[in-house]
Amino acid sequence: MGRRILLVSTVCWPSVARYAGGFAAAGCEVHAFSPGEAPVAASRYVTQHHLYSAFTPIFALRQAVERSACDLLVACDDRAVAILLRLANIYEAFAPLVARSLGRLENYSEMLSRNGSLAAMRAAGVHVPDTFAVSNEDELEDRLSQIGFPAVIKADGSWGGEGVAIARERAAAVQAYRRLAAAPSRLRSLARALKRHDAHFAREALAPVRRAISLQRFIPGTPAASAFASWQGKVVAAIHYDVLVAEGTIGPPNVIRRLDDPAIEHASHAVAQRFGLSGLHGLDFIRDGEGTVHLIEINPRCTQGGTLAFGPGRDLPSALASAAFGTMSGMRPAIANDTVVLFPREWQRSATSEWLRLGHHDVPWDDPAVLRAALGMPATKRRA
Prior knowledge:
This protein is of the alpha/beta class. It has helices at 14-25, 57-68, 78-90, 95-102, 108-111, 114-123, 137-147, 170-181, 186-196, 199-206, 262-275, 316-325, 345-349, 355-358, 368-374; strands at residues 4-8, 29-34, 46-51, 72-75, 131-134, 151-155, 164-167, 213-217, 222-231, 234-246, 253-258, 279-287, 293-299, 339-342, 360-362. The chain contains 15 helices and 15 strands.
């Protein structure tokens, strides 16, 4: 078996390109399946780029898998997970590769349910806030009476904070439920497609989809997270961290601090084992005022924290490649500072931020086209 990795992404996150560098350092030949404008398409670490299509995703992915002759698939966003599962379901010949890459496919329907996945983790002894499936407004009213305010309303199949609302009183909760539960109108989807230059919204206009909704008790505190690599249900590397600065209440992190936390470690192992996971995954937590961490969400794909390299057992691409291919071929130099300023958001938030002085600057100096893309500049290199 070779060491060919296919990064599967339907979005334009710069973090995907950082994984390309990590897997290249681990001795892998890296291919990328993504939109043409994604930073990873221009990364110096990508041997070949394969173009993603929002309108024919399964056909395009099948072509990318065949042309890359990849040995392992890495899902880089939630939509990528969904199309990988559909590929395995539609084409039996690809099911073994998808299962090798993601783990036990029969467990993904439960893991992709916000309510179902957290219920399973509560049963495994992990601290989880009260979380309930809500299918109508009467159920919403009953559960709100039980958990009180603030309350968190979440839509399955969403990410990046777009499918999450924090309601501080009943009218706001009902409004958020109606907005998240209803399939968007065709007119709204078309308007969003034009405004955001994103064909996915145009596709939603053709086939609107209602999402399952869950209601979660709000836990006051600060965010924390885990990014881990697992193989056949066992964690092979993990990075745990507190979020020191984030974009808004539910936005992505700007500054993180790596730490060792037994409760986060336990939750990471419990998730990997319960769902039989392989690949790269992430967990989101809230650390309350007493220091207890509460698992609030499972990310069934790689996350930004996993792009960082903190040495043996804490370099996710290297550990996953080693587990999948049986040999250790390389690893990036370890970051010496546990406090990391993620590029470029903290620079953009405040040029005088104290974290710019105290933390490691996670700037992709080694990948100039990705650096330009992160700064909003046009990439200088494309691969067809």
